Amino acid sequence: MSNPTYKIAILSGDGIGPEVMAATLPILNKAGEKFGFKTSITEALVGGCAIDATGSALPDATVNTCKQADAILFGSVGGPKWESLPPTQQPERAALLPLRKIFGLYANLRPAICHKDLIHASPIKNSLIPDGFDVLCMRELTGGIYFGEKKTVAVAHGERSIDTMVYETSEIERITHLAFKAAATRRKKVTLVDKANVLETSVLWRKTVKAIAPQYPDIKLDFIYVDNAAMQVLKNPNQFDVLLCENMFGDILSDELAALTGSLGLLPSASLAEGTFGLYEPSGGTAPDIAGKGIANPIAQILSAALMLRYSFAQEKAALAIENAVRRALAEGYRTGDIYTEGTKKVGTTEMGNAILSFL
Ligand code: IPM
Ligand code: MG
Asked: Catalytic: which of 117, 134, 163, 255?
């Protein structure tokens, strides 16, 4: 069989996006050489730089590039320059939300891993996480209150605004299957995060997830109210394996979990559609304060590329090899500024990328 060629839309975006992407592409290439696949990349504008160039955060040309691709590798969007735009035109919202909807990216996987070597960077008391932690936040991404009907109307003494949280059984079912399947490759536990004591949609989530559970007899299922979940992840993140969340709860909890790992610069994410299409992006933002200085941590972007190889291209061995190379670079003491401690090797974006490349 001849080597497959994967078409990848590269949307580097703003801030540190282009730098960390530049450190990632050679790694993707080398993984291809080692594991027998080719990549054909097309770059396209997204976010603030796209607003400056075309007036739109998500130009049609970019959507078309993505439509012709097998997957999207995304950097990050936004920054101070565009913060005064009206909320609906802000790069984050005007680029990411439509991309999720257009491509049906309904399942957002946000692994929050605190490496044993880096527990000092976590704000959690280190005695509580002697071996670090590894929690997978699985967030529903195309439903719920972010996409339900919204409106603002005038009333006697001002305005009244409404956001609507809407879910249908089928939207819950598809992500629930993914959560159980993910748990099967991990510590075999799914925790549904909801607010079933108050919200109708949460009652539907519980009912739907419970009905699916018997299909996965090896997986333990439990339930937690979102307010309690926010507290429990602080007290003992290791009690969780896969956290299954509706859109807004997952948005909030995934940021909390990310903060608990100690560095946003390490966390990748995958947003998956039905089939094999996906968008892969670092969890951290554009980090405008350090953009352009060559010091940003490229690991989240590199690990996002690994997730792309795993989920969109079924190149599990290549994904693992990249993940191992990252682990090795950390174990050998390579550190960008965000995770630096005395006695380790402080490096910039390119050097970190090169170190990982050399261990691949
Ligand atoms: C995220 C972000 C987005 C979201 C914003 C920028 C629209 O917070 O990806 O978590 O709310 O989903
Ligand atoms: Mg968020």
From this structure: 255
